[in-house]
Amino acid sequence: MANIFSKYDLVSMPVVDQENHLIGRITIDDVVDVLEEEGSEDMAYIAGAPDEEITEDSIFKLARARLPWLLVAFMGELLAAFILNQFDVTLQQKLMIASFIPIIMAMGGSTAQQASVIVIRGLATGDLSLRDTGPRLLKEFRISLLNSLFFAIVLFLIVYLWDSAYFATILAVSIFVVINNAAIIGALVPLTFKRLKIDPALAAAPFISTTNDILGILIYLTISTLLLSHGI
Amino acid sequence: MANIFSKYDLVSMPVVDQENHLIGRITIDDVVDVLEEEGSEDMAYIAGAPDEEITEDSIFKLARARLPWLLVAFMGELLAAFILNQFDVTLQQKLMIASFIPIIMAMGGSTAQQASVIVIRGLATGDLSLRDTGPRLLKEFRISLLNSLFFAIVLFLIVYLWDSAYFATILAVSIFVVINNAAIIGALVPLTFKRLKIDPALAAAPFISTTNDILGILIYLTISTLLLSHGI
């Protein structure tokens, strides 16, 4: 609706019922209010702090409002701890694997957030529609292919100098798979939310980042275990 | 400026020079355009994908636009890998410490993002000003005290049942310190950016999350090392 006001520089718009009888009008100052509201709402969803008023005084209310989103992260990462614990033989064999858990998590998380925010924003402005799902996923994948290749090469060189070629290979393959996987998840989740008629902005922070942390760790440790056992 | 339009339901506003001569006017449809632009700009900054057009076709341009923000994360987390590597004696002593790196990182990151987005939004709407810096930091700290206490207790109970009281103590203390530290960082960084006259929205994703990952890991591993060596 705001997009129509913006596109045609309208200052007011008639509202009609199904038989085209005039039942009221929307003025542009309502649009300004809605836009301000919506912009900060989307931002707040991305952070997992929806509907929070900066002027709210009760610390208890504020803490409780933020708690559910933190709980999503908490339970997801508890699952990640459980998964990591299953790989203790691999970690024992090569302790340095643990040092690179943060970089794998962060590169996946950042990539997914970039992809998701671009898609959420595109859906909000109307520049992107559900019909573009296939092409958009392909586009995000092609972007991430380039960036993942860049980071795979840089990480290979750094870890090769730091440790060994075989551990450098593990990390290069892992970061390549994790980044591309994250780009697909980041673009796919908001599009799926939109298709299910749930606000895509809701998908961003808690859901996508937790999913990506778990998948990133699984991918990294599985690749590590496979390559270590084949003695590369 | 948009806040004034919204507050007084204006449809146009005169622009005067220093001697109060009328030199033009701003109409509300300009405000709508600016608001749409600003809202998506802030969202894009938070994701580290500024100025990106959904309709841009060149994959190379898009990949290059997103690269700098990924590089910030990459270099920060490489530092995290280096730090973790320094603690290999601690990790060897108690391998399970590695399994809880993700939960420590994620809880710190989520808390910081909540605090930062609330502050960024408050500064953008004018509900929060630099004069409120002290009270705001105190408020964020009090909110995080409640939530960190909640997660410290829950994590203590889970790890106590899973492993041991001494490892549960390490994790409870760590998550408590990390969450509170993250809340302060999350609120302080955008306020500092604002003071330095840099767009606070720029602070959000890449800078705050990377800082928090590094500090979170340092805090967790330092507490682990201290408590392990004292044989708690």
Automatic annotation (TrEMBL), chains A, B:
List, alphabetically, the InterPro entries matched. Answer: CBS_dom, CBS_dom_sf, SLC41_membr_dom, SLC41_membr_dom_sf
Please provide, in alphabetical order, the Gene Ontology terms of the cellular component aspect for this entry.
membrane
Is Isomerase given among the entry's keywords? no
Keywords for this protein: CBS domain, Magnesium, Membrane, Transmembrane, Transmembrane helix, Transport
Give this protein's Gene Ontology molecular function annotations: monoatomic cation transmembrane transporter activity
User: Where does it primarily localize?
Assistant: membrane
Q: How does it sit in the membrane?
A: Multi-pass membrane protein
Looking up Gene3D superfamilies in the UniProt record yields: CBS-domain, SLC41 divalent cation transporters, integral membrane domain
Mind telling me what this protein is named? Answer: Magnesium transporter
Native organism is Caldithrix abyssi
